[in-house]
Amino acid sequence: MRNIYENVELIRKSRGIPKKKLAENACISNMACTRMLSGQSKMPADILRSFAATLFIDDYNIFFDDKLTDLVMSSK
Q: Is this prediction's pTM over 0.85?
């Protein structure tokens, strides 16, 4: 079972969206984004919603389910 931040990173990479874009859209620094995506700091729900919107995900709960994450990645 993967962590939420791992699922966010998998989808981000599969869609070719740079971390910088996630950070800009969430109004956080690149360093804060990197720390969240590496699991070094917590990812608040409002940031998770912003990441989902940037990644063209309608429901951020997808990040909590490995099977749904895998489905999203395969349906580019």
A: yes
